[in-house]
C-alpha cells in the first residue's frame, strides 16, 4: 500500500512518515494533488497555520472531495483534521469542506492547549485497544462539526468539551497527534492503516 | 483535563549526550536515540535536546541526531541551542523536531520569535528564558529606562551575560510575538537540587496566557509537585537527577500521583 503524506511546506512531517512506514506501507511525501489522489490513502499532517495550509489546497476542490466521497481512506491530524472542514476562525481560506462545520478558537485562559489530555473514545474501530486514551495535543483551534453524529471522540479543555475526533465514511480526523502519543498513538495509526487496507 | 508534564532534558554535543557543570568538563553519557527512547518508555511526556556544540560541525551533526531520534521517538521533541536565525528552524522541524527553543538568539533578535511563529505556528516556538534574582527590584526594561520589575532579570549565553530585561516583561513580549510556550530556568537553582524557583515560576505563569515549563532545581518529587501546584507551571523540566540515577520518571510520577497530581500514567 502507498500512502500520500501531503506536504504544505512547513513543519515536521518526518515523525509521522516514519511512524506510518514502520507499520508497513510506503509513504510518499508530496505536494502534488493529482499524484496524492492516485495513491491508496491520504494523510493530512498537522503542522502550520490554517491559512497557509488552505492555500496549498487545489484551486478546484472537486476532485479531492470526489475522491473522499468515493472512499479514498484519509486521516487528517490536528490542522489536517481542521482542513477537512469548511473554514476556520484562525485565518481566511477555504477548507476541503468534506465534513460540514467550522474551526473555532479554544476559549481558555491558557492557549495553545499544549500537552497530554484524556480522550473519551466512542466505539469506532480506529480506537480499538486504546481504552483510557491520553493523547498529546498542541492546538489553539478546535472543530465544530455541523452534525454532532460526526464526532467519534471528545476531550475537555478549560471546561469546554470539543471534538477529539470526527469521521465521515473512510475519512477520519484526529485533533491530537497520534504520532506523538507514544504507545497508544501508534496503536491508533496501526488501526487506521488496517482500516485503509480493508477499504482498498 | 490537561496532565502536568514531566519533560526530560538532554544536553547534546557532536551527536552524543554529555553532562557537566555549567558546560564545563563535559563527559559522554550515552547515545541520544537510546536515552530519549528509554525515557519515553519510562513515561517521560516530552524530550528536550539542548545542543551545547560550539562549532558549525556540531550543529550539522545536530540535524542527524534529531533525524535519527525522531524516527524512533513517539513523544514530542524540542530542540534548543542550535537556533540562531529563523532559517535554522525549518531544517530542524523537517528533521523531526516538533518545537524549537531559543534564548540568546531571541534576545539579540526578538523578530526570531515573531518570524518563526508566523511561518511555522506558535505551537512549535518555545521562548527559553534564563532568569537570575536581582538583589533589589530595580531593573531596566533593557532599553535604558529604569522601572519597577519582578526582581528577576534575563541572562543570555548560558547564563553569563546580563541583558537588563525583566523576566516577566520579556516573557510577556515573547508571548505577544507568538511564542507558544515559555521554558523558564532559574539560574540560581540550576543544578542545586533544592527545588524550582516557585516565586519566579508563578510570577511568569500568572502573567502570560501560555504554558510555562519550570526548570532548574529539581531534586525530589515534591519539587515537581510544588512547581505545578504553587508555581502554576504546566510542565517541569528534569535532567540531572534522572541522568545520575537518583530517581526515575516512573518514580517521580508515582509520587506525584500519590499527591493527587494528575500526571499521565506510565506504560
List the helices and strands and how they pair.
The complex is a heterodimer of chains A (200) and B (267).
Chain A: E1 2-6, H1 14-21, E2 26-30, H2 33-37, E3 41-44, H3 50-55, H4 62-69, E4 74-77, H5 79-82, E5 87-88, E6 101-105, E7 113-118, E8 120-121, E9 134-139, E10 141-145, E11 151-157, E12 160-168, E13 171-174, H6 182-199
Parallel strand pairs in A: 1-2, 1-3, 3-4, 4-13, 5-6
Antiparallel strand pairs in A: 6-10, 7-9, 8-11, 11-12, 12-13
Chain B: E1 5-13, E2 16-21, E3 24-30, H1 32-42, E4 46-51, H2 56-70, E5 77-80, H3 89-95, E6 99-102, H4 104-108, H5 111-120, E7 125-133, E8 138-140, E9 146-148, E10 152-156, E11 161-166, H6 167-176, E12 181-186, H7 198-207, E13 212-215, H8 221-229, E14 235-238, H9 240-243, H10 249-258
Parallel strand pairs in B: 1-4, 1-14, 4-5, 5-6, 6-7, 7-12, 12-13, 13-14
Antiparallel strand pairs in B: 1-2, 2-3, 7-10, 8-9, 10-11
Helix pairs in contact in B: 1-2, 2-3, 6-7, 8-10
Task: Summarize the structure in short.
The complex is a heterodimer of chains A (200) and B (267). Chain A has 200 residues and is an alpha/beta fold.
User: Poorly predicted ranges of chain A (pLDDT <50, ≥5 residues)?
Assistant: none
Helix-strand pattern of chain A: EHEHEHHEHEEEEEEEEEH
Average per-residue pLDDT of chain A, rounded, comes to 95
Number of domains of chain B: 1
CATH class of chain A: Alpha Beta
Largest sheet of chain B: 8 strands, parallel, barrel
Order of helices and strands of chain B: EEEHEHEHEHHEEEEEHEHEHEHH
Placed side by side, the strands forming the largest sheet of chain B appear as 1-4-5-6-7-12-13-14
Number of helices of chain A: 6
Summarize the largest interface: chains and residue counts. A-B, 38 and 39 residues
What CATH calls the topology of chain B is: TIM Barrel
Q: Tell me the CATH topology of chain A.
A: Rossmann fold
Strand content of chain B: 25-35%
Low-confidence stretches of chain B: none
Let me know the average pLDDT of chain B.
Answer: 91
- By oligomeric state, this entry counts as heterodimer
What would CATH call the architecture of chain A? 3-Layer(aba) Sandwich
CATH H-level homologous superfamily name of chain A: Class I glutamine amidotransferase (GATase) domain
Q: Helical percent range of chain B?
A: 25-40%
Amino acid at each position: 500500500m502507498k500512502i500520500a503524506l501531503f506536504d504544505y511546506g512547513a513543519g515536521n512531517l518526518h515523525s509521522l512518515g516514519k511512524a506510518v512506514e514502520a507499520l508497513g506501507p510506503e509513504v510518499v511525501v508530496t505536494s502534488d494533488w493529482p499524484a496524492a489522489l492516485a495513491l491508496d490513502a491520504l494523510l493530512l499532517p498537522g503542522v502550520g497555520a490554517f491559512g497557509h495550509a488552505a492555500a496549498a489546497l487545489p484551486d478546484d476542490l472537486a476532485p479531492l472531495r470526489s475522491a473522499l466521497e468515493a472512499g479514498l481512506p484519509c486521516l487528517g491530524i490536528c490542522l489536517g483534521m481542521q482542513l477537512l472542514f469548511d473554514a476556520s476562525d484562525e485565518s481566511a481560506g477555504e477548507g476541503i469542506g468534506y465534513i460540514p462545520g467550522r474551526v473555532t478558537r479554544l476559549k481558555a485562559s491558557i492557549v495553545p492547549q499544549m500537552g497530554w489530555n484524556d480522550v473519551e473514545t466512542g466505539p469506532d474501530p480506529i480506537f480499538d485497544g486504546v481504552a483510557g486514551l491520553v493523547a498529546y495535543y498542541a492546538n489553539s483551534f478546535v472543530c465544530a462539526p455541523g452534525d454532532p453524529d460526526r464526532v467519534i471522540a471528545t476531550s475537555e479543555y478549560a471546561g469546554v468539551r470539543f471534538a477529539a475526533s470526527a469521521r465521515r465514511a473512510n475519512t477520519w480526523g484526529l485533533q491530537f497527534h497520534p504520532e506523538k502519543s507514544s504507545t497508544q498513538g501508534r496503536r491508533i495509526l496501526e488501526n487506521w492503516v488496517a482500516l485503509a487496507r480493508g477499504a482498498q | 483535563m490537561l496532565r502536568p508534564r514531566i519533560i526530560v532534558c538532554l544536553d547534546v554535543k557532536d551527536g552524543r549526550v554529555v553532562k557537566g557543570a555549567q558546560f564545563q568538563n563535559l563527559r559522554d553519557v550515552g547515545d541520544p536515540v537510546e536515552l530519549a527512547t528509554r525515557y519515553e518508555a519510562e513515561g517521560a511526556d516530552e524530550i528536550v535536546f539542548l545542543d551545547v556544540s560550539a562549532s558549525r560541525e556540531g550543529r550539522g551533526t545536530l540535524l542527524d541526531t534529531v533525524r535519527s531520534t525522531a524516527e524512533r521517538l513517539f513523544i514530542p521533541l524540542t530542540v534548543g541551542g542550535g537556533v540562531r536565525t529563523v532559517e535554522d528552524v525549518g531544517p530542524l522541524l523537517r528533521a523531526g523536531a516538533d518545537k524549537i527553543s531559543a534564548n540568546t538568539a531571541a534576545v539579540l533578535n526578538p523578530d526570531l520569535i515573531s518570524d518563526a511563529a508566523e511561518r511555522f505556528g506558535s505551537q512549535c516556538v518555545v521562548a527559553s528564558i534564563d532568569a537570575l534574582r536581582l538583589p533589589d527590584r530595580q531593573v531596566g526594561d533593557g532599553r535604558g529606562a529604569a522601572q519597577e520589575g519582578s526582581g528577576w532579570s534575563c541572562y543570555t549565553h548560558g547564563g553569563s551575560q546580563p541583558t537588563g530585561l525583566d523576566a516577566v516583561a520579556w516573557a510577556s513580549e515573547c508571548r505577544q510575538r507568538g511564542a507558544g510556550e515559555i521554558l523558564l530556568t532559574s539560574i540560581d537553582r540550576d543544578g542545586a537540587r533544592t527545588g524550582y524557583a516557585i516565586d519566579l515560576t508563578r510570577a511568569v505563569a500568572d502573567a502570560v496566557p501560555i504554558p510555562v515549563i519550570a526548570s532548574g532545581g529539581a531534586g525530589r518529587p515534591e519539587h515537581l509537585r510544588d512547581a505545578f501546584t504553587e508555581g502554576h507551571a504546566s510542565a517541569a523540566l528534569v535532567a540531572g537527577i534522572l541522568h545520575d540515577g537518583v530517581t526515575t520518571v516512573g518514580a517521580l510520577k508515582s509520587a506525584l500521583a500519590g499527591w493527587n497530581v494528575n500526571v499521565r500514567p506510565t506504560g
